[in-house]
Amino acid sequence: MTFKHKGLQALFGGTFDPIHYGHLRPVEALAKQVGLQKVILLPNHVPPHRPQPEASPSQRLEMVSLAIENNPLFTVDTRELERNSPSYTIETLTSLRQEMGPDQPLAFIIGQDSLLSIHTWYGWEQLLDKCHLLVCSRPGYAANFKESQMQEWLKKHKTDDAYKLSQSPNGYIFLGDTPLLDISATEIRKGLSSGSLCDEVIPTSVMTYIKQQHLYQN
């Protein structure tokens, strides 16, 4: 008996402080490459690996909602924002997998920088039991792990066949050929605080909201 699922879906987490085209455009390119039906954005509340966001959780959620309001590929999930503890990916994936069932093809989108440090993540060994990993290219990052055991792990799970991702619920790593956009939220925040215009890298509706809320004006 074949299972009925909703096509390949993917999760994409981040602080989105603020959300910008460096988040959205590589993911849109990846969606075309692998046939993603839906991308679920997961704004983090307490990110374990980086400083706390400048914008409040409600402001970051509003910016994400504005950025994707006319794009049917994207939706947003607020479960990590509703936590007061660190947002560990494996815990989010476990709860989503319970909701979706064992047969739904599910992927988690990360950058090449995150892939190369994934063995420092809490519970990373269980990630491929819950999902596939889709990796976006990042400017200036190596293609391979320095650690031989991690390179073996990558080799074991890597596939170049996007079709496999929608035929299996989890277990593969796919290295996407995505645009190399050297846009960082840190640089955007610095630019906004010094009065620079960032209109080319932030959706217009998000830029309008940033101005209305007087965000990143230190």
UniProtKB/TrEMBL annotation:
Keywords: ATP-binding, NAD, Nucleotide-binding, Nucleotidyltransferase, Pyridine nucleotide biosynthesis, Transferase. One of its GO terms (molecular function) is ATP binding. Its EC number is 2.7.7.18. One of its GO terms (biological process) is NAD+ biosynthetic process. It is an enzyme of class 2 (transferase). It catalyses: nicotinate beta-D-ribonucleotide + ATP + H(+) = deamido-NAD(+) + diphosphate. InterPro entries: Cyt_trans-like (IPR004821), NadD/NMNAT (IPR005248), Rossmann-like_a/b/a_fold (IPR014729). Residues 11-190 form the Cytidyltransferase-like domain. It comes from the Bacteria. Pathway: Cofactor biosynthesis; NAD(+) biosynthesis; deamido-NAD(+) from nicotinate D-ribonucleotide: step 1/1. Belongs to the NadD family. Catalyzes the reversible adenylation of nicotinate mononucleotide (NaMN) to nicotinic acid adenine dinucleotide (NaAD). This is Probable nicotinate-nucleotide adenylyltransferase. It comes from Providencia burhodogranariea DSM 19968. The lineage of its organism: Bacteria, Pseudomonadati, Pseudomonadota, Gammaproteobacteria, Enterobacterales.
